[in-house]
Amino acid sequence: NPQAIAITLWALATMAAEVDPELLASLSWRAVVTAEGFIPQNVANTLWALATMRVKADPVLVDVMSRRAVAMKDSFNPQAIANTLWALASMGAPLGPPLVEALSTRAVHTAHGFNPQNVSNILWALATTGVQP
Fold it and tell me: CA separation (Å) from 12 to 15, 20, 47, 70, 104?
């Protein structure tokens, strides 16, 4: 299930475990095929974990997770917005205009909930990928 995928990846990244590339590929593929069940926290945690483990961005996973984020934009909280954008930028993935527009709009509506680290991570992600806010 999506939560199990996200939590497993998060735990592996948090432990700084040496992870078999085949396991990462399998979990990434499962994330792609179960993406419809992902909630914002699952999207953010999955991408954060992969970025933290310095996994090269898989274009299919990035596309699917980005589209899922756009579809659920109104459910994203400040930390999920910041972690999603930071993770994609950290992996060298492009931040597509629909994703940037959706999460930027959501950020405006939830601005009161951002802490300095969230703001810093978002601005870093936008600057790193060359996106104009």
Answer: 5, 11, 13, 26, 29
d(CA 92, CA 5): 22
| Two structure tokens written together for 61 | 């996973």
Burial state string for 99-120 with b = 16 or more CB within 10 A and e = fewer than 16: bbebbbebbeebeeebeeebee
Q: Name the helix (H) or strand (E) containing 44.
A: helix 40-52
- State whether residue 35 is helix, strand or coil: helix
pLDDT tens per residue across span 43-74: 999 999 999 999 988 999 999 999 999 999 99
| First and final C-alpha spacing in the chain | 34
**CA trace torsion 103, 104, 106, 107 (10° rounding):** 110
